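Q: What would this chain look like folded?
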Amino acid sequence: MTCPSCEARTSCFGQGADASALRQLDQVVEKRLSLAAGAYLYRIGDPFRSLYAVRAGCLKNSIRDEKGRDHVMGFHMLGDVVGVGGIETRAYIFDMRALEPSEVCEVPFDKLEALAHRVPALHPNIMKIFGRYRSRDARTQFLRREGSTDVRVAGFLVDFCRRLEERGSDPASLRLPMSRADIGDYLGLSADEVGKAFARLGERGIAKVWRKTIKVSSIEGLRSLAAGRAGRGLATPAVLATDGPSQEGAHHEP
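A: My prediction, written as structure tokens:
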């Protein structure tokens, strides 16, 4: 599949580009890689060379603490660009691993920079990718420090729904490729706390959860819960409501 015909073109490097720009972008894609579930795209400390656009599936990025324990920092789906964290350090700063069978496009960064100078239409997209990387960082920190277990889990689901909707999918019907343990690690919670929060969503009539499938009955109810810090009726936090498609998180990577 080429860039002009790829479903991810509306949210990765080619967002808003015309047919000519997409054809030129396709020429700098070095590889289209398939990853089995559990396979690593890159590891912490690997030399930085390329950015990767997710074509299918879902990946997670994680860091390792001083005791050697991994901590999930973000999840990446169709159209997300990962690897941005390695640009400054010239080495990847996260482990990036497929949660399910996934596909990515590898774009060498030096070729992408050169193309952006030749094709002005692509330059704003690259700047947006860098901006989204910083925005994801802010959102991650917000979700981890704000409110109760229910507020954090609802905030996570609001964000996931938004990202699906931006990609043309039904935000009321979710299939979560990540485990409860991964969600909990991302939010600073245990897997058991996440499971109980999911159960309470059903009790409130907001969403029904069956294994990794979630049917959202009330997106407004979910947003209200995500905004309800300490029971106060706040508007949906801007960091959850206005951010563009995710690229990598705070300490997310992309």
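The longest helix spans residues 123-145.
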